[in-house]
Specification:
Arc Repressor Mutant, subunit A; 53% helix; 2 domains; 5 strands; five-stranded parallel beta sheet; elongated; 11% strand; alpha/beta; 10 helices; Rossmann fold; disordered N terminus
């Protein structure tokens, strides 16, 4: 197995555009693994190969963009079963490969979010295009997850009163109305509101409203 871990703090804090994407390959056929590894490395991409789904699941989650080339027919836990286990990994799109065509299987995989389903033998260019598209999707998903994570950290830094003020402000209430609901002065509301804007790193009320929507915040 080729391993190059990317889970340290420096990697996580690095801009997504500077992160080296990883292409994971799971196939129990050593000749397939080696040929895919050589092809992917030739394109200048980082690659890690695994002989089984169980082996892959032991690997820590990648800290940056990635995609998974997954053989459908694997010993023990097969490709479709692994896809179900990875349902929450939107930042790691899956490209299925198989030695035989099966329409129901293809439909099942695609409905579950696979980006491509390739039947062996397939042209190198077809696979590379699929990888390119998958990694682009991964960058977008990873950027969104990173953004949401940062928003959650910022929101967690708010006091309970600041959260109450934020919820009422983004619901459209004026400072005077917020003060009346919370039983505090308008000046105090303004102070809390300013603190919320700083901690959430919001440049405007519209920014704050969008942040609340992203975090699925509801009025207290």
């Amino acid at each position: 197995m080729t391993v190059a871990m990317a889970t340290d703090h420096n990697e996580r804090s690095m801009p997504i555009s500077h992160m080296t994407p990883i292409v994971f390959v799971i196939d129990d056929d050593i000749s397939v693994r080696e040929s895919l590894e050589a092809l992917i490395r030739y394109e200048g991409l980082q690659v890690e190969t695994f002989v089984s789904a169980e082996e892959f699941l032991k690997r820590p989650r990648a800290a940056g963009p990635s995609c998974l080339i997954l053989d459908v027919s694997l010993p023990d836990l097969n490709g479709l079963a692994l896809q179900e286990r990875l349902a929450d990994r939107a930042d790691m799109p899956i490209i299925f490969i198989t030695g035989f065509g099966d329409v129901p299987m293809t439909v099942q995989a695609m409905k579950a979010g696979a980006v491509e389903f390739l039947t062996k033998p397939f042209a190198d260019t077809v696979l590379l295009e699929a990888i390119k598209g998958a990694l682009e999707r991964s960058r977008t998903a990873f950027a969104q997850e990173t953004k949401v994570g940062e928003l959650r950290e910022n929101y967690a830094s708010l006091s309970s009163r600041e959260r109450e003020v934020m919820a009422l402000v983004v619901s459209g209430l004026m400072n005077k109305q917020v003060g009346a609901q919370l039983g505090i002065s308008e000046i105090t509301v303004k102070a809390h509101r300013g603190s919320v804007m700083r901690k959430m790193k919001a440049n405007s009320l519209a920014d704050l409203v969008n942040m609340a929507a992203t975090l699925n915040l509801t009025r207290p």
